[in-house]
Amino acid sequence: MRNRSPMPATLRSFIGAAALATATALAAPSLQARTAAADAPVVQALEPLLAAEFAIQSGRLDDAARWYLEAARAADDIELAERATRIALLARDDARAAEALELWREQGGEGTRLLAAEATLAVRAGETRAARRHLVALLASPDNGWREALAVLAGGAGDPEQAAQLLEDLVDSGRMPGELQAWLAFGGLAQRLQQPGLAERLVDEIVRRFPGEPRVALLRASQLREADRDDEAREVLQSLAARASGDADLRLAIAYEYDALGDLTAAADILGRGPQDDQSYALRASLLARAEDKSALVELYGELRRGAARPDPQRRLLLGQMAEFLERHEEALEWYAGVPGGPQRWPARLRSANVLHELGRGAEAFDRLHELQADAAAPESARRDAYLLEASLHEEDGAAEAEMDTYARGLAEFPDELEILYARALSWERRDDIARAEADLRRILVIEPESVAALNALGYTLADRTDRYQEALELINRARAAEPDNAAIIDSYGWVLYRLGRAEEALVELRRAFALQKDAEIGAHLGEVLWVLGQREEARRYFEQAREIDPDNRALKRALEKTGA
After folding, report:
1. What is the count of structural domains for the chain?
2. Inter-residue contact 246 to 262 (CB < 8 Å)
């Protein structure tokens, strides 16, 4: 089981101080001493601080912001003032965030984090001049303040046009930092904001400032690809190919761009230049398999096969996986059986069961998985995975009863195993048995109350499949408090806002989520909200992007059916 999140340091210190103050009061012989201890700021701050933590655990961010601000005032503590500001910003309680920020400043707060909070509030209030001033100050900070400025523009702006205008103002100001990494980051932001004109301008400026730098050329290729100028992007990548042989990181970056262009064979080819290891071989095999380039994959398989005389577990495991790609199932079984030992032995046994299932020898496959499940010498993770694989194979067979029986046996063997509970919850949700999915996710939260994955999954399920929107919001808020920049959680938050009838607010969050991660489900949600708001041409563009990413996505299918797009 993963460790639970520790109690925040501020809370620990205040509880410790409060306990000391209370003990002193009880030991003191006079009423005056007890009264003085009870009036100490640390004691006065304890109640609102505990209330704030309980509110966080309940997903009530508005209440948490209020209580943190009260605790910060009572204790006159700079760390509490900063936390009150951050929680209020997360809750989008800008009035209370402004109060907490003022207190933070009065208590001596300074530096990039305070400037970033000021900039975020100014952006949200539409105070462009003030926002620009704070962002320029961040760029001038020697402590990598540009990173905070980047975060403000990526997450604080209400819409891409607002963020783009501020970014353009920063470029015009001449205050951009001189380091390449900062320029690349802001150029990438312009692309994520889907502002091709601004992105092109930034890339042109980066090329001018840093001529001959491979990372700049990669950004140029990415910008051209985003602008649907694929042929030009390929020309840029081809110009880099000659420099890739001696630089593994550059080869990987070029391959990523070819992959994004859909040129999987070209991606595999670039990875094949220069020295090879098992990772590069595995990546090449995966790319060729996705490209369905059987001839190239056969050639790579032969190359590896010739060097597999010695009993190298990692190489034989890889050869077994490649034989699977090539549908040479009998050869795959031989390679897996030949894995001599080491940690690779266990995935080889799991893969062999999968191959047997592919061959239509389901009974043998399940027998092998049952053997692994009962093998006391196997690590617990391998035995657990054997239950998960067995359930997955039963799902493929459409054997719902056998699938659920497997999960039950797995949980009997590994009580409260989070991975099995989570997999079963997802299976219940796919079957539209929301009550049972909820029960498993709540069981995870009893075992691990801070499980961000379970909080987000349960919150999203309630928002998407029930009308218990307020409860969903509280669960998602708990996840947001733990990981405020997680794209999946931001998507869940945007979706529950939409379900609550707050479509304009939802749009802001969903745009931000899609900028962070190009995902079919996020694109489907964004398209549906835009459609409902009457912005149907833009909605169709997001639906199309989602379709390109994953045409079988269930959220996309539901959105298209609902909107008729």
Report:
1. 1
2. no
